[in-house]
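Below is a filled-in request sheet from our internal design queue. Each sheet records the structural input a requester submitted and the sequence that came back. We keep these sheets so that new team members can see what a complete request looks like end to end.

REQUESTER: design group, bay 2
PRIORITY: normal
MODE: inverse folding
CHAIN LENGTH: 182
BACKBONE (tokenized):
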């Protein structure tokens, strides 16, 4: 029974890792990739289109309110602020469609500053950590912790099982030797 519980724990752990990887890929394809393209756009129309695509994904997946954090709420994980900021940027883009070239350039620069953060490794898209698994953050964290608790138990059981197998093999060899001697 313990052996099967151990295998189930390993399966759960691997499934969680695969889910996290898959979720990260989807977020990159459907959200952050479009935010990056909006930040890199050289025209109001292109930036507006990319930002609209990202906002449509956010609204479709109900990423408009709440916090992505599990234990405590931090400002960088506030979905309401992040979403409101993106919406305001889109409205600003829409307002400047008939503006001068200088005004358009200023709005594009402002959008770029809104969408990107500068760090040690260069620019990165601004979005709440953990958004790829939101709103299941708590469930996934709990399942991950459970699997981490039971993984050592699995290895202990596997070690016990291996010792038992070795003991039985030695015992069989002893019995064969005894039978051949008599």
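RETURNED SEQUENCE:
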């Amino acid at each position: 029974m313990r052996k099967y519980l151990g295998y189930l724990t390993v399966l759960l752990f691997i499934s969680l890792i695969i889910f996290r990887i898959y979720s990260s890929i989807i977020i990159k394809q459907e959200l952050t990739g479009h935010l990056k393209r909006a930040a890199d756009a050289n025209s109001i129309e292109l930036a507006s289109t990319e930002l609209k695509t990202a906002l449509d994904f956010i609204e479709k997946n109900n990423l408009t309110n709440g916090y992505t954090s599990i234990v405590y709420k931090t400002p960088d994980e506030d979905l309401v602020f992040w979403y409101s900021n993106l919406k305001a940027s889109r409205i600003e883009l829409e307002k400047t469609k008939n503006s001068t070239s200088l005004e358009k350039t200023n709005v594009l620069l402002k959008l770029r500053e809104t969408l990107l953060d500068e760090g040690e490794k260069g620019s990165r898209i601004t979005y709440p950590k953990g958004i790829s698994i939101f709103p299941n953050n708590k469930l996934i964290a709990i399942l991950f912790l459970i699997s981490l608790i039971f993984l050592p138990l699995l290895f202990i059981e596997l070690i016990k099982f291996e010792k038992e197998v070795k003991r039985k093999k030695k015992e069989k060899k002893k019995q064969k030797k005894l039978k051949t001697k008599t």
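SHEET NOTES:
- Strands lie at 116-119, 122-125.
- The longest helix spans residues 137-181.
FILED BY: M.R.
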